[in-house]
């Protein structure tokens, strides 16, 4: 059963239609999904480049290393809290910056 059963006809000029097609393609969305994002209060963002996923992979590896450091510290009672906190704060800041730069934001 189809959830969306209301068809909406929309009239655009050539430049508007081209812009809609181009923007939807950049976001890797259909034109319908692109428009529905606006209706639902979201500003569609361009899909992140391949480098974004590569950086996330590296950051996850850093996170795993931090967890290993924490585990080792717990086992040996050799806790270097300042070093661990510094690394964790840096990792968190980088991932937050990436999310702000590449992930969709709520429309204002």
| Share of helix, binned | 55-70%
Number of domains as seen in the coordinates: 2
Q: How can the largest sheet be summarized? A: 2 strands, antiparallel
Strand segment tally: 2
Low-pLDDT sequence parts: none
Give me the strand/helix succession. HHEHHE
- The shape, in one word, is elongated
Question: What is the count of helical runs?
Answer: 4
| Strand order in the sheet with the most strands | 1-2
Q: CA-to-CA gap between the ends?
A: 34 Å
Gyration radius, rounded: 22 Å
Question: Which range does the strand content fall in?
Answer: under 5%
Structural class: mainly alpha
Mean pLDDT: 83
Description:
The protein has 108 residues and is mainly alpha-helical. It contains four helices and two strands, in the order H-H-E-H-H-E. A two-stranded antiparallel ribbon has the order 1-2. Helix 3 runs antiparallel to helix 4 (81-102). The model has no long low-confidence stretch (mean pLDDT 83).
List the helices and strands and how they pair.
Layout: H1 14-26, H2 31-39, E1 42-43, H3 50-76, H4 81-102, E2 105-106
Antiparallel strand pairs: 1-2
Helix pairs in contact: 3-4
């Amino acid at each position: 059963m189809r959830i969306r059963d209301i068809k909406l006809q929309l009239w655009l000029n050539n430049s508007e239609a081209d812009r809609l097609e181009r923007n939807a393609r950049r976001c890797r969305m259909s034109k319908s999904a692109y428009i529905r994002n606006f209706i639902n209060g979201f500003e569609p963002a361009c899909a992140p480049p391949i480098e974004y996923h590569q950086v996330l992979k590296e950051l996850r590896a850093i996170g795993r290393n931090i967890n290993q450091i924490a585990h080792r510290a717990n086992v040996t009672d050799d806790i270097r809290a300042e070093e661990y906190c510094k690394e964790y704060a840096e990792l968190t800041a980088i991932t937050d910056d990436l999310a702000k730069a590449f992930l969709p934001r709520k429309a204002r």
